[in-house]
């Protein structure tokens, strides 16, 4: 071809195929041509003196011709296109040898694509915001090695959580349910909900409820074998020994796992601590250790050192100073706002500690904790019974959490009996309160159906066990067929409840494999949904009727008395403002 014919040929191809060719050929030198593909991002060096086959993405019927004044002519055709005739060498008398290049589509499952997917999988940093170091150590090592990382500021802004703890109102707005562990439909979480989170992030503090249930069972079977009113059952201490060692193993395993969570995912632990329900479960590890001390088999040891009691009660005292202070402060976490049956876990530790201390021969310490527990139990009991309109966590219907009402008075009766040396009138008053609450919940057992299983249910079993142990002590003082039968029945109910929970837990753990789902309660965002808007605003100095309307709408599903009480409260607050 002459030079004019070649130009006409290119113009004809551009007219028939106006699409842009996805590959750009740049003339580098007389010996090299660099092919840069826009779609695949690859750069290949092609020697014009050799025959080379190149695989390219399919781009339709396209013909690309590259001419080198010192080399051979070649063409690259799209699949299905017509081949270009040999080109004549420009400015050279030698006959050119045409080299044909046919583009072929690249497979989707190429090694490059798979490598990209693998790298994305290994570089997943969605959970770094809950890690203790949040990637700071990795960045320090990278900076020391002399390598720079891009977009550090962007990663820190999107992955690192807020230093300030979440306000309690965010938990009420984002979560629902008696245990505040179900995400509302209008909320979003910080972690991906389409994949399974690391196990430690899914391991909640409520797992210590298992230790409470099994540990209290070891105490109950020790009482069955040693109490005078139940000796007719001829129960051996072997059951107490087996249950005690199982409880020790459970406490060791659960404590080790949660300690790893504290070390590796401290942000998740901090969010659990500020959760209005889960904060009460931070008493569970220490109460479990108290149960292990009370249920100690005589074959293992007969006496416990007194310093052990002070060691176990010190963390309980520290937690009480923090939480009880929040109840009285009148702030976001005042008792009238966060009161719920799980708060009994923060109370019952005083009575269990008093019982253990009195059993060890101590005097002043057990009386101190008994007094503190009694004062706060009375306040909590009245607050829960009132069902104040400001209370946002108290379930409107019966739930297994209500069995915690039985825990404090039943253990308090045994603690006071041990302090006084006899099951006197004070112990009997506390015991009768516990017995009445137990029966008032037992006759409504049908209302407890239809609730989703949770590990927190284990914490609701030890109140039944405590009521059974208190009944044994009462039957030792008032011995007759009725009290002995009642002690056996309550012990049997407590044992069957723990056994059924054990079977259910094993079923969810090994068959359904959903014992530890993604814990959305710790992954809520600190920002409210954008589409969530209030219908009206209440400003300082504004009309009082707008606040009454908001209160009325908030408690519209409650009784008329609650609405009137809520309106009176809002009017009083407006007057104070």
From TrEMBL:
Task: Report one GO cellular component.
Answer: endomembrane system
Keyword Disulfide bond set for record? no
- One Pfam family linked to the record: SLAC1
The entry sums up its family as follows: Belongs to the SLAC1 S-type anion channel family.
Name listed for the protein in its UniProt record: S-type anion channel SLAH2-like
Sorted UniProt keywords: Cell membrane, Ion transport, Membrane, Transmembrane, Transmembrane helix, Transport
- Annotated region (Disordered) at 144-168
Is Membrane there in the keyword field? yes
GO MF terms here are: voltage-gated monoatomic anion channel activity
Query: Topology in the membrane?
Result: Multi-pass membrane protein
